[in-house]
TrEMBL record:
Residues 20-137 form the RNase H type-1 domain. GO terms for molecular function: nucleic acid binding; RNA-DNA hybrid ribonuclease activity. PANTHER family: OS05G0353850 PROTEIN, POLYNUCLEOTIDYL TRANSFERASE, RIBONUCLEASE H-LIKE SUPERFAMILY PROTEIN. It comes from Dendrobium catenatum. CDD domains: RNase_H_like. This is Ribonuclease H protein. It holds the Pfam family RVT_3.
Length: 173
């Protein structure tokens, strides 16, 4: 049975910032990206970067790791992590171990998170569209970029505006 589900991006409550991250793997490239926003939905940071060919989970974990590092550098202590990969949540919450090839990356993420007040949750891909867009951008880049938040691509700015207004996305299930 096919049905539609309405999903939205939700602003974090003070004092939290929200980190949405995503990984992308295509035929000939891989990338990651993420966006960090405050309680009003204003962008604090956005980033994207390329990866060598890898699994989707490796890309997702890299996206999360870079975002956590940026939060740390910004001095954010309270972070709501939101990802569209349930497996990443299970790895962070110690429900599953994860692939041994990601051992050091997972360890780095967990060690970094031990210094934060954080929680992690799932978001459907449709409502994670900003991070998804940035991950796809990462596939096209030659090197990691922390984007200038004052001159973001109009397409990304439009998605940010829709999220700030809490406009719904339709998920076809």
């Amino acid at each position: 049975m096919v049905y539609d589900k309405i999903v939205t991006w939700i602003k974090p409550k003070v004092p939290f910032v929200k980190l949405n991250s995503d990984g992308s793997v295509k035929n000939h490239c891989a990338g990651f990206g993420g966006i960090i926003r405050d309680h009003n939905g204003n962008v604090l940071a956005a980033y994207a970067g390329p990866l060598n060919k890898c699994t989707v989970i490796t890309a997702e974990l890299n996206a999360l790791s870079y975002g956590i590092d940026i939060c740390s550098n910004m001095g954010c202590n309270n972070i709501w992590l939101e990802v569209d990969a349930q497996l990443v949540i299970q790895i962070i919450n110690n429900v599953v171990l994860g692939n041994p090839q990601n051992f050091y990356l997972i360890r780095k993420i967990k060690q970094s998170l031990s210094t934060f007040n954080f929680y992690i949750s799932h978001i459907y891909r449709e409502a994670n569209c900003c991070a998804d867009w940035l991950a796809n951008l990462g596939c096209t880049l030659d090197h990691f970029q922390e984007l200038n938040i004052n001159s973001l691509d109009p397409m990304l700015k439009g998605m940010i505006t829709l999220d700030k207004a809490a406009l719904p996305y339709i998920r076809h299930v």
